[in-house]
Specification:
By secondary structure, this protein is an alpha/beta fold. The chain is about 40% helix and about 15% strand. Its EC number is 2.5.1.43.
Length: about 325
């Protein structure tokens, strides 16, 4: 049982306490400093299993994930407001301090998706797109240039801010659609999508996340792909963890744990074609039967190594 005697847990607990005492989580020098320190603390590989944390630390972790989620939402609203003040917001995305991370994460997800999808999907859903839908924007602009993105968020103000960012672009304004609704109320519409992306903060704890996954397995069409974000090691203090065994009704295809500044792990799974949901207790990772959830803690291949350098330089030229 891991408790406060662990030096990393002690450090994270101290930071959580300091963050909890802040008057506001809106972007400020104090907020930025504490969260930067937290991320840098959790980023290096560290042999910790969050399922073995004592109850007190589990409660701290749950609280910290919610604080991180709130701060991330406020940060996105802040920069979406700034970007929305430009005539052409998409020309200024680099002002967002973590834009380069989104470029890397989106490329990572696209490379993994390409391993399991023979054709570029025509319609995808992104659940939890928020006021600054950078993943959708980057994928639509550089990787899936003919795909229509249906972005779902429960917050009408988030969708209003997000749509403002793309409305001046003649292409993206037609391919980026925004739906204000609770994803748990979406049913038959999920059958229209070849790929569903699930944001890391849709479902802030294990029970909520599994509830969303169970809803998706009920309504996604057989054979459709689910791309979702998780966390591994100490990074699980920042984001919820999705274990492959949580994905009942899906065949787990790839689990990838980055070790660089891309914080989120990436999991891709396929909605089962012929097995009833209740009978699925395992998945397949790169063709190997996964008997235990623990077997899924792998880094099967590194899609970041497959980056096209010419494309990357072209993207940098476009942004400069």
């Amino acid at each position: 049982m891991v408790c406060l005697k662990d030096p990393l847990v002690q450090k994270v607990s101290d930071l959580c306490e300091k963050i909890s005492r802040l008057d506001s989580l809106k972007p400020s020098k104090d907020v930025d400093t504490l969260f930067t320190h937290l991320v840098l603390t959790c980023m290096p590989p560290y042999p910790i299993d969050v399922t073995k944390l004592c109850e007190k630390i589990q409660e701290m972790r749950s609280n910290l994930i919610r604080l991180c989620g709130e701060a991330e939402g406020l940060l996105e609203k802040h920069f979406s407001t700034i970007l929305g003040s430009f005539d052409n917001p998409l020309d200024h995305l680099e002002i967002f301090p973590y834009f380069s991370n989104y470029l890397k994460l989106s490329r990572l997800e696209y490379n993994i998706l390409s391993q399991h999808c023979s054709d570029v999907p025509s319609r995808v859903a992104f659940l939890g797109s928020g006021p600054l839908p950078l993943t959708s924007i980057v994928l639509a602009s550089y990787h899936m240039t003919s795909t229509t993105f249906h972005n779902y968020d429960i917050d009408p103000s988030a969708n209003s801010m997000a749509s403002r960012l793309v409305e001046s672009d003649p292409d993206l304004s037609k391919r980026m659609l925004f739906h204000t609704t609770d994803v748990m109320s979406v049913t038959d519409a999920f059958k229209d999508y070849d790929v569903v992306f699930l944001a890391a903060l849709v479902g802030m704890d294990k029970e909520e996340k599994i509830g969303v996954i169970e809803h998706l397995v009920k309504y996604m069409k057989p054979g459709a792909l689910l791309m979702l974000r998780s966390a591994h090691g100490a990074r699980a203090f920042l984001y919820p963890v999705v274990d492959p065994c949580d994905l009942r009704g899906f065949e787990v295809l790839t689990v990838f744990h980055p070790t660089d500044e891309v914080i989120n792990s990436v999991v891709i799974a396929r909605k089962s074609l012929d097995l009833p949901t209740h009978s699925i207790d395992h998945g397949f990772i790169n063709g190997s039967l996964m008997i235990s959830c623990k077997c899924a803690e792998i880094q099967a291949f590194n899609p970041l190594n497959q980056m096209n350098m010419i494309e990357e330089l072209a993207m940098e030229d476009h942004l400069s």
